[in-house]
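Pipeline run #58 for the internal structure catalog. This entry was flagged by the ingest filter as a single-chain record with no existing model, so it goes straight to prediction. Upstream metadata was stripped on purpose; only the residue string is passed forward. Reviewer on rotation: M.T. Logging verbosity set to normal.
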Amino acid sequence: MIQLIIGAGLGLGGVAAAVAIKRYNEAEREKAARPADYWGNKYEARIVSPACALPLILAGAAIAAAACLYTQDTGEVCVIRNLGGSLAGSTSEAGFHAKAPWQDVVTYDTRNNLINFYGDTDYKVDGGSYEGKQVSINDRSGASANIDIQVNYSLNPDAALSLYSEYGTQESFVEKYISNDVRAVTREVSGGFDTVTMLTDRSQFTKAVQKALTEKWKGIGLTVEQVSVQDVRYPKNITKSYSEAQAAEVAKQKAQNEQETAKVEAETKKIEAQGEADANAVLANSLNDQVLQQHYIDALKSIGKDGNLVVVPEGSQPIVGTK
């Protein structure tokens, strides 16, 4: 609209300049047509070329023409607004587009935008992205904590018209709706998790936040690309108590493991001793006179191999031909 006003102003200024030049030239020609003065000098007309007004006219025309065109980048959707505030439609294709000179263009970024709450960051909105302070929550155990969280989301181009109708610019939409949703959902979901889970299994909480945001935003054309919980900060007394409990649990588990190991080792030794006793009992029961006599004969035969001399003690049964 401003371009149209400037272009029209320059164009009208050029036309006015052309008219003024024409009248000036006519006056100069009238002076030149008069008779010579007393000394015989005749007035010479000083004619100004009408082309002097042409740059103003061309500049005005160029600016007015530019008011009828707009460019659009990849990943953007443009909402076309009439002079009275009504909407004329939207475009989502990159390139040059035409519009009426009295229409305005409101741009929405459809690419991945970031909502980021962390630390004591100052509030700042930039297009579809937003930064702000950490989110304070209370978990199911009643403990309070501060959470740093990031949410990546994208916008369906078809939703731009309805979003503009309700919220206006994308910055206003992000500031009034999206950022508040991220805070509210984070606080609501945290109430379903106890302190230990929040400290030890952050992934469960992260998945729950992403699921809740996805359900809440799917009806307005927003897609949750990723949720990342960067940090969960509890007061020092809570983290200290948790660390002490963890250390005690580790010591308890270690003692239990040592007991189990000792028990297994004792059971193993018992089994080995029992096995050895059983083997000795079997061996003792199997050594009768006949078996011992046979072992004795086998031993003598083994010694008498290859011509060895075998001496049988007196009183024993002689063995002949052991070779």
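catalog note: The chain has a mean pLDDT of 76.
catalog note: Residues 90 and 276 are 91 Å apart (CA to CA).
status: ready for reviewer M.T.
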